[in-house]
Design brief:
Elements: H1 3-23, H2 25-53, H3 60-79, H4 81-109, H5 117-135, H6 137-169
Helix pairs in contact: 1-2, 1-6, 2-3, 2-4, 2-6, 3-4, 4-5, 4-6, 5-6
Length: 170
């Protein structure tokens, strides 16, 4: 199969996935949560295995402890994906809040050297998203992660489709 066909196929599939995630953000968010829980579970299991199978490993206790935390976190998320969805949404909200504050501070500090309007606007947008999550975490949980997944899939779909079309012209 040609590279252009693979890129176009992947692009169309990503676009379709993005549309589905945009239409159904709660199931998409639960899918992200389930994937995250499985990743923590697998990473924790491999970490524990590595901590006890490698002789002479430095800091074995810390590796085992952190791996056990990952394992427990993975099990907890998989046992109750809705609670995990709320937790991941709050983590995302914390990131948005922090990045919004940082961008606003940078915009303020750079106001003499350049026009920081776009930086300030994106900072306000991130700050607003963070505040939205913190003031209504349950409502935000039903849409935020699924919508973020949708945006990522749509942007990847556009990029891959564009790449496939460009490769066809070559």
């Amino acid at each position: 199969m040609k590279g252009s066909t693979i890129a176009l196929t992947a692009g169309v599939l990503a676009l379709l996935g993005g549309i589905v995630a945009l239409l159904f953000p709660l199931p998409a968010g639960i899918a992200v949560t389930t994937f995250t829980g499985a990743a923590f579970l697998i990473a924790g299991a491999f970490g524990l295995f590595g901590a006890f199978s490698q002789q002479g490993m430095p800091r074995r206790g810390w590796v085992a402890f952190l791996s056990l935390l990952q394992l427990v976190l993975g099990v907890a998320i998989l046992a109750d994906p809705l609670a995990g969805l709320v937790s991941l949404t709050i983590i995302a909200g914390s990131f948005f809040l922090a990045s919004g504050v940082v961008r606003l501070v940078l915009a303020w500090r750079l106001r003499q050297q350049t026009s920081p309007v776009l930086l300030a606007l994106t900072g306000l947008l991130s700050l607003g998203l963070g505040l939205y999550v913190f003031f209504s975490p349950t409502t935000a949980s039903t849409v935020l992660l699924g919508t973020l997944l949708a945006v990522e899939l749509l942007s990847a779909g556009v990029a891959l489709t564009g790449l496939g079309l460009a490769l066809r012209k070559l």
